[in-house]
Amino acid sequence: MKAKQWVLVKHFEGEPKDNDLELQEFDLPDELNDREILLEAVYLSVDPYMRPYSKTKNPPLTMFGEQIAKVIKTRNGEFPLGTVVLTMSGWKSHFISTGQDLRPISFDLGSTPLSYCLGTLGMPGATAFFGFGLLESKKGDKLILNGAAGAVGSVVGQLAKIHGVEVIAFVGSDEKLNWCKNELGFDHVFNYKKVDFSQTIKQLAPDGCELFFDNVGGDWYHTIINKHLKRYGKATICGSIENYNDKTEKLCKLC
Residue 85: what pLDDT? Predict the structure, then answer.
């Protein structure tokens, strides 16, 4: 049978470009061997970590990443037809496995969309849960949160609200601002493209904040650590998306 895969044909340089990836066909056997399973992709993950992590790979290769897949043919009794699994098989439409690399989704999702297993119920949700837990927040603390509309940030902000923390959030569009403010209930939300984030934080928390969850890095990290985090405040450093597309390493400005 014919299957398709996205192939990383060369390293990203600066912003990812269309010709960094190619959609290619490849052949899979029509018949399975004993213990083999044929799976079809249902959802593929696209995560920020892929951008810097790709530098450790040697193209050309199938674009790596997690996917949700469904068993469509099987000769393995542990994986009957229709079984839905999580797997790190990358960006492929179909693949054959013997089962060692598959993690069945065994709990009842009810009306929850299956895609959430790659989001809030998957790696990003776990990152948010454990990353926020490291802050050991107390009711009444103030949290600075950038990347607040992302897969991790949006969950961090909701966890903070559950724990009685005041959330000062920054996003990259007015649409994201409205979602975080009106649907997620974050206390203060700003489009960082329209404000000076340092001045905004100073106005809301002139004495500083107790907590910082950083998804952006770069100038955000240095400015907030040096100017807006209280002494003995706590920070979780989760990502550095401001720098992922840099062609050369940048030195920070002294704050």
Answer: 97
Integer CA distances (angstroms), 62 to 8, 21, 58, 71, 129, in order: 6, 9, 10, 21, 30
Q: Is the dihedral of CA 106, 107, 113, 119 positive or negative?
A: negative
- Could you check whether the bond before residue 60 is cis, i.e. omega within 30 degrees of 0? yes
- For residue 39, CA distances in Å to 7, 74, 200 come to 19, 9, 50
Confidence check: pLDDT of 249 > 80: no
Where residue 57 falls among pLDDT bands split at 50, 70, 90? very high
Q: Which residue in this structure is represented by tokens 């790709």? A: 54
pLDDT at 97: 97
Q: Which amino acid is at 56?
A: T
Name the 3-class secondary structure at 220. Answer: helix
> pLDDT tens digits, residue range 157-184?
999 999 999 999 999 999 999 999 999 9
Q: How far is CA 190 from CA 63, 86, 214, 240, in A?
A: 34, 35, 15, 19
Q: How many residues does the chain have?
A: 255
> Residue 52: which pLDDT band, with cuts at 50, 70 and 90?
confident
- Coil, helix or strand at residue 1: coil
* Element holding 11 (H helix, E strand): none
Question: Do the strands 209-214 and 229-237 form a parallel or antiparallel pair, or are they unpaired?
Answer: parallel
Quick check: helix, strand or coil at residue 31? coil
pTM exceeds 0.70:
yes
What is the enclosing helix (H) or strand (E) of 194? Answer: none
Strand order in the sheet with 229-237: 188-191, 166-171, 142-145, 209-214, 229-237
Which residues on neighbouring strands pair with residue 190, listed in sequence order?
A: 170
